[in-house]
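so im writing up the methods section and need the 4-aminobutyrate aminotransferase record in one place, dumping it here so i stop losing it
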Amino acid sequence: MPDANCNTAMNGLNSNPDLIWAPVRHHSPICSWQLLRLVKRHKPDVIMIETPADAQPLLTYLQSGDTKPPVAAYMYSMSEDGQARRGFIPFAPMSPEWNALQAGKQHNIPCHFIDLPYTHWPKKPDEDDNGELSNTDPLLYDSEEAFSETYIKALLAQSRCESFDQWWDRYFEHQYHTPAEAFFEQMQLFGSQMRQHQVNAEPHTLLREHYMASRIAPCLAAGQKVLVVCGAFHCQGIWHYLQQAQPLQLQPEPNQRSGCHLVPYPLSRLSHRHYGASLSHSGYYAHWWRKLKAAPIKQLGILTRQVHAELATELMGFLVDKGHAVAMPQCVDLVVAAEQLAQLRDIAPGRSEFIEAAQLTLVKESQHAFSRWIDEFFTESKAGTVPKNLPTAPIVADFHERSRQLKLPCQLIDGEVRKELAIYRQANHLCQSHFLHQLAFLDVPYGEQLGGPNFANQSDLHRVREQWQIRFSPETESALVEQSHLGSTIEEVIHNTLRQQLNRSDMTSYQSVTLLLAALQMGLPNWLSPLLTLVKHQMDSETDQSQLYPSLSLLFQCLSGNRLLAHDHQHEFESVIQHCFVRLCARLPRLVDPRHEKELLPLFAELLKLTQQRADLCLPSYLQDALVAIPASQFTFALQGACSAIATVLAQTDHDPILLNTLQAMIEQSYREPDALGDFCYGIAFVAGHLLYQQTELKQCLDTFLSSCDEALYLQTLPAMRRAFLQLDYDGFTQMSLLCQHDPDTIAHETQPDADDIELMQQIRQDALQGLQFWGIHYD
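--- predicted struct ---
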């Protein structure tokens, strides 16, 4: 029961008959439905909505008949020091804010956005100190501090609900028999209890509430009847500042660029787990709203059954498409089971009961797989539409201008286009490639590279043409608008994005190289010098072996594709490669660890290859010195074989004794450790397999040892040798097959099995056959 303080607070909130509260949960169907009833009953003079005031220019377009939800107001601001902020304000079909706007249009009631202007909002927690933004949607009303964590946990514990969404469904979402005034009084109480009936809150929240009160007060003073649509949490704070009547003067933010645009926005984004106003399975509520808003009052009692029957039928078709067999009687069982579960809990059936009933009646396999299907079923990825006369964002205008210049699709009527670009022969094709790579870098859905050289991901480097599939869509413009906080043109956005990347403190050497290659593919030669400097710095400080060589390999591959490097930085680029190779060789002795043999062998092989391909940049002497400096205790037999092979290749002589002497030592070791010789040969074969069959002395040494082995030693040595020989190519394997081949006369004098051996083999065969017969396997 509410205490005395609570009753006092509630009485104060509702003491002014001209102030009508509509505290809501964002995107709740029942809040929208009750709000429409409240507007119809009270006929306010003005509707004030909790949305940043600088979105007011979008109001005309939000109320346009050409706007179809879901859409979102995308807001951004960038300060003079480069600090960027951005946020989305979604308007779904079932959002109270959206329905308040439509009710205002229908009844000719002025609507105003009254929340704190976005330019005065603080930097969001998903922005680091360098102003870089995360990949997730920064939704404005996602502060979990707005919900009292202790209070919500107590609610869930007392009600035994699994989540706040489930609690909301059971205690609020089905209150369509409750009068609108009583419903919103309950919402006031809920919001007041969330903040423990206190005005104190997070400073930014108090500033927002103070600003909203300053926008409401003049209308009340003019004798207007005001309907306030805001989150339930804010009612008490707004009312407090209305009583204080303190003026609020916001100081303008100096040298700040800001903007607000209306964009299509998929309903699925409302289910984002970091969005404080999120709705789990928002597609369920969208379906519920479509039925609720059109249902006569008399049919509300059976509305849930109708909704669940329709959803069950749609779910059946969805599961059949997934290969999960479902019959119509099971759909009937699903609807009945949902109602029975609700009766047991003494609540109205809702989303949780529908999903639980679906699992009970339809699941025959993994619950985990079915849960993923349910999530997909209730995900509506289709976005809304915006008016054609909506002002075009500068970055979108830049896209259309460049698309027309390059003769690329820029409207829906252009359809899907396939392009094959001869980037090394035709200048206009190269310009098209740069533009497409720029959009791909910004994750703009427009062009998909199907084939051809891509240096950033090291694919098809041997090819000379790029193949692209290009299609313009409304999502193309939406994605561009969402980049507006970084600039008004595509190139400006890319420049600011690259600046953010340069300032990242967690950048690895591999990431810095991929960024360099991306700049090359985008045709940004002015960025090569700072990015090459970044790569050099990262390689100097990099200690992770898994990052060092891939970074160098990427650089080397880029250098080999010299047509990509059509710029004035060839010498600087080669200097960085040389520097990186030296740094890698210097660190190599400290990187060698017997436990990492599997990773080190490919590294040794590739380093040798670099010295053979570009000895002018990757000097063999650095690699030789690095191998000599490796402590003997760190060598496995395979690593020793690889290093001996590299030393032989770099010595550039056919009579270098290093490999032969080490091989003879391994042969002696094989009598104590049978795998020694095979592992040693495996290391040789991995980095320079040709040495095994091209060096006559080496081949003779192997032949002599293997021919002289007794049967026991040979069988012990064979598995490791087999692994080594499998590293050879076909010709090499053919050469090695000539080992241990003797004359027929020699083979004829080999020891033959005696009668006892033959008898023993026959007995073993009989025992094996009996064992197989036990399992039903018979041999004649």
